[in-house]
Amino acid sequence: YVLYTAFTLTTAITEWSSLLYTVLYTSLPTIVVGILDKDLSKATLLAYPKLYGSGQRDEKYNVNLFILNMLEALWQSLVVFYMPYFAYRQSTIDMSSLGDLWALAPVIVVNMQLAMDIFRWNWIIHAFVWGTIAATTICLFVIDSIWILPGYGAIFHIMGTRLFWLLLLIIVVATMVPHFVIKAFAEYFTPSDIQIAREMEKLDDKRSERSMTTSL
To answer: For this UniProt entry, which segments traverse the membrane (predicted)?
Structure first.
C-alpha cells in the first residue's frame, strides 16, 4: 500500500492501529508461543540426545528456509492488499474502512499461521493466539468510535457489507493453503528426526490413554 501513498500508512490505517499491530497484535502471541511451546518432551530428548544435532545442522534455521519464508510473506502481503483493493475499487467504501480490513486480515493470517505451527497447546497459548484476534477487533471498534480520530465509524461501515466477511474468508484460505501444502508435503515425504520423534510421542500418549481406559 505504501507504494501508492508515498510510503505512508496513515491515509488508511491510523497511527494507533499501526502501533498496536507491531507492539500487541502480532508480537505477544509469538513471544508466548516461543516461551511455552516446545518440539519434544524432556524424556524424549534425554532418551535420544542425538536429536539435539538438528540445531547444529541448521535444519530449522537456514538460508533456504529464510528465502521460503520471505516468499511466503510476499505472497500473503499481495493477497491481503490486492484482494480488498480490487474488490472495493469501484465501491463507495472509503479508505479508512478499507484500512480496517487491512489491519484485521493480517492479524488473523499471522495468528492462524502461528497456530498451524504450534506443537503443544495449553490454555495460555489459546488465550493469546485467539484472544489477540478478538482484541484486535475490539480495538478497531474502540478506535473507530472516537470521533476526534480519523476514520470515525469506518469499521461499522465496512462490516455491514457481505463482501467484507467473504474477503476475510478468502484471504485466510488463500494465504494459508500454500503454507499448509508445503508443511504437509515436507512432514509426510521428508520428515526430520524431530518430527519422527514427535509422532512416537503421540503414539506413546495414545497407548497410555488406552491402557488407563482399560484399567478403569
So the answer is: 18-36, 65-87, 99-116, 123-143, 163-182
64/109 Cα distance (integer angstroms): 22
How many CB atoms neighbour CB 212 within 10 A?
Answer: 9
128, 160, 146: which is closest to 31 by C-alpha? Answer: 128
Q: Please check whether residue 80 is in contact with residue 171, taking contact to mean a CB–CB distance below 8 angstroms.
A: yes
- Distance, CA of 216 to CA of 210 (rounded, Å): 10
Q: What is the pTM of this model?
A: 0.81
SS3 assignment, position 139: helix
Helix, coil or strand: residue 150: coil
Per-residue model confidence as pLDDT tens digits over 29-88:
888 998 888 877 778 877 877 777 776 676 677 788 889 889 999 999 999 999 998 988
Q: DSSP string of 40-98?
A: S-HHHHHH-GGGGHHHHTTSSS-HHHHHHHHHHHHHHHHHHHHHHHHHSTTSS--HHHH
Residue with cell 505472497: 75
Pair 94, 154: CB distance under 8 Å: yes
pLDDT digits (tens, 9 = 90+) for 136-194: 888 888 888 888 877 788 888 888 888 999 999 999 999 999 989 988 888 788 777 77
The DSSP secondary structure of 169-211, one letter per residue, reads HHHHHHHHHHHHHHHHHHHHHS--HHHHHHHHHHHHHHHHHHH
